[in-house]
Write a structure and sequence with these properties.
Layout: H1 2-7, E1 12-16, H2 17-22, H3 24-31, H4 36-40, E2 46-50, H5 53-58, H6 65-74, E3 79-80, H7 93-110, E4 118-119, E5 121-123, H8 129-141, E6 147-149, H9 153-156, H10 165-176, E7 182-184, H11 193-198, E8 203-204, H12 208-214, H13 228-233, H14 249-256, H15 259-282, H16 286-300, H17 306-314
Parallel strand pairs: 1-2, 3-4, 5-6, 6-7, 7-8
Helix pairs in contact: 7-8, 8-10, 12-15
The structure holds zinc ion.
Zinc ion (ZN) binds at residues 238, 240, 242-243, 265, 268.
Length: 316
């Protein structure tokens, strides 16, 4: 945590409330007054808890919506999450619609349970743009003050395709208005984040830094690279403390084989991307930043969908 706070300067964290809840000993400590902020030790940054909905997607949780929301509220989270229903792209319209209705019903039931925390309205709707739109409209009518976009990852994590994500985020921003934060659950590739910001999102979380490190993938602002020769050639040089003294191919081999150091570099790259996006927004040059990313990314990954799908969105 010290490294995350002092070296990476992370702004906050997301924790899985279900994992916190199911550890009996930890739950007792929370009952005795331990707060989430004390437990995490990240200082004043934003603390978000998610509900375990994604775990519930894989196996049954034996946990109710109201119980997990009340638990999140009791431990002092800043943003709590309902037990929403994950809707993968393969779900047919009927299924996606039923899940959307059930999710919104749970959000409606959970809203009166929170006072200190802000309850996330979670958008579902699967692959149906009109359902996603309706989801956001209903959440706006419930007056949610934090919008999370659920089940969106599978639409962009193959080949950085933004053709569906683009209209989803633009619609969400238009419907919810400029003041409500929009969180894209599970978005954490630094090459994608600046595009999601341009489309209207503000908050991101992901364990991508760890997953990428496990498969020996080195994140850069232009896409993740796993080839030692390309890294050693040095077109991109990372100034983080893990990378700044790397010299030759052997150093790069060592790094790609060291999951912990590689994960640290990856987290640093994500945080640095957020800082660069903020600077670009403040200087009104996000468009130039995106053009630069598309140019380099497309040269490195000629088959990527990012450039073509982004340009198609841009022309609309
Ligand atoms: Zn680095």
């Amino acid at each position: 945590m010290d490294v995350l706070r002092d070296e990476m300067r992370v702004d906050g964290g997301i924790l899985n409330a279900y994992f916190l809840y199911k550890q009996r000993e930890l739950r007792d400590r929370f009952d005795q007054g331990l707060t989430l902020r004390e437990y995490v030790g990240l200082g004043e940054g934003l603390l978000v808890t998610d509900s375990g909905a994604f775990q519930g997607f894989v196996r049954k949780l034996f946990l109710s919506n109201k119980t997990i929301v009340a638990f999140q509220e009791s431990i002092g989270t800043d943003v709590s999450s309902p037990l929403d229903l994950v809707t993968p792209p393969g779900d047919k319209r009927r299924v996606a619609e039923d899940k959307l209705n059930a999710t919104n019903k749970r959000i409606r039931a959970a809203l009166p349970l929170v006072e200190q925390s802000t309850l996330a309205g979670v958008q579902q709707g699967g692959r149906f743009l009109d359902l996603r739109r309706r989801s956001t409209e209903e959440l706006a009518a419930m007056n949610v003050r934090y919008l999370a976009i659920g089940s969106l990852v599978p639409f962009f994590n193959r080949n950085h395709d933004v053709s569906f994500v683009g209209p989803v985020l633009r619609d969400a921003r238009r419907i919810i208005g400029p003041d409500v934060p929009i969180h894209v659950y599970g978005a954490g590739d630094p090459v994608e984040i600046p595009f999601f910001v341009a489309l209207g999102a503000d908050i991101f979380d992901s364990s991508s830094f760890g997953h990428y490190a496990r498969k020996r993938a080195y994140m850069t602002p232009y896409g993740a690279v796993d080839r030692v020769d390309e890294l050693a050639a040095g077109e991109y040089r990372c100034p983080c403390r893990v990378c700044r003294d790397l010299r030759d191919v052997a150093d790069w081999e060592d790094l790609l084989g060291d999951e912990r150091r590689l994960a640290e570099h990856n987290v640093w790259t994500i945080c640095e991307t957020i800082r660069r996006v903020r600077t670009a927004l403040a200087q009104d040059r996000l468009e130039a930043m995106l053009a630069d990313i598309v140019e380099t990314h497309t040269r490195w990954f000629p088959n990527s969908a990012l450039g073509p799908t982004w340009e198609a969105l841009h022309d609309v």
